[in-house]
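Much of our argument rests on the idea that a fold can be written as discrete symbols. Part of our work consisted of pairing the sequence of a single chain with a tokenised description of its backbone. The amino acid sequence and the backbone structure tokens for this protein are reproduced below.
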Amino acid sequence: MVAARLGQSRRLRFVCWSFERHVIPDYLQGFGECVMVDYKSSGVDIDAGHEVVRQVKKLAKSTFTEGVLSEIGSFGGLFEPRFTDLERPVLVASSDGVGTKLAVGFLAGRHDTIGQDLVNHCVNDILVQGAKPLFFLDYLAAGRLLPEVLTKVVEGVAVGCKQNRCALLGGETAEMPGFYRDGEYDLAGFVIGVVDRPHVIDGQRIDVGDVLLGLPSTGLHTNGYSLARRIIFDDLGLSVDSEMCDVEPGVSVGEMLLRPHRSYLNVLEPLLNSEDRQRIKGLAHITGGGLTDNIPRTLPNGRSAWIERSTWVVPPLFDYLQRMGRVSDEEMLRTFNMGIGMVLICSPIDVEDVQHQLAKAGERDSLIIGHVTEGNGQLGYG
């Protein structure tokens, strides 16, 4: 392939691309110097990519579970499932990213928690159907591969996988010069889990009068960051190093916004593994769309829900964002989790037992925040 451009001396210079033999065709002789171009000079550093893979192999291996049959670096990951204790195993898959929370990490120069966000978000998404994770895949794309940065990102993924007892089975690391700015990257995750068909949580048993239990979040999790960044950085002019005394003295903006998305697997798994699993009629992961959009996703036809906002104390960060950004109640409730990261729906007669089981698993702050009503999938607030 040949391209020509006019240099400052106004003589033609030819740039020849060849990945095997650099040969100047006869018809180009005499037209000037020929500059050989390789992949690295085009922006793709294969050696840096190999270094990233070398580091990732170690991290991934630390997450391997019994079913993993392959090493990182093959064309595909091999996993042998063992479902001897399941009557009718059903695979559950989900994919997600962490949104513009990445931008906060770029500003703060912190890349070690973003991977945890990714894994926990994906695991929660399959958990609402009663599934437990088996293995995880990630996709990481950057304008320029910086092994020290990308290794930190994958370290976070590995931490998340180990905490959720799933294997980091493989992934893709892509260097895309000219597509992403230097120092920036994008990240996506894919999780595969399993649930026994009789134990799938699909919300179909939810009835009028059932109770909504709210489980607390650790902060914004991975949603609402575009609005939060506009308020904090653009409107207020704060930096990631600024201290938000009105919210949490001694904690910087960066530290607060980068707190990892919480996984609810460890506190819900004991219930899902016991005979009490039938007490859970529905689960809703409160992500993009907030309480307003996510609770209706688990409701069957003919059902709505009512939330009593006075039943929990909204964390100071959300109050701060609403006050300083002059954001309406409606917009807050459909953008942020407002301090509730997971909602569990059960019968009124089971509430005490469910809360007891949650407390035994370490979740002592579950709260009754509402109930199910007749309706067409709307969510009301009082």
